[in-house]
Amino acid sequence: MVIAALGLFALTELRREGYDLRSRCALVLDGAPSLAIVKRNGDPEPCSLDEAGAKALLDAALGDAKAKKLTWREEPITLKPSIALSDLIIQSRRLGAVEADGEEEGVEQDEVIENTSSED
What we know:
Helices cover 43% and strands 12% of the residues. By secondary structure, it is of the alpha+beta class. It has 2 domains: 2-67, no CATH class; 78-120, no CATH class. The chain has a two-stranded antiparallel sheet with strand order 1-2. Strands 3-4 form a two-stranded antiparallel ribbon. The longest helix is centred in the C-terminal third of the chain and has 19 residues, at 83-101.
C-alpha cells in the first residue's frame, strides 16, 4: 500500500513541479492530466486525486505500515558523487556550453561539484 501511495503522491508532485526529463528537456502536456483505474475487464474508470488527497493517502499508508512495524529510514540520505563522476559532470557541462553557442566557456566556480568522498 505504501509503494502505491508513494507513487500517486509522486505523480501529483510532478504535476506541480513539472516534467523535466533531463537538462534542457521537458515533457509538456497538451491537456489536463487525468488518472484512471483500469478494472479487471480492461475498462478504465476515471478518478481524480489532488496533492492534498495524495498526501493524506500516503500519510495513512505510512501510519498503517508503522503500526505493523514495517518502517523505513525517515531521515534524508545525502549522496556524494565520486571524483570520477564529478569530473564527468564538469566535462559534460563544458561540452554543453560549447554545443549551445559554438564557443567553449569555462565552468564557473559555483558549478564545480563538491566532492568529499575519497577513492581508494
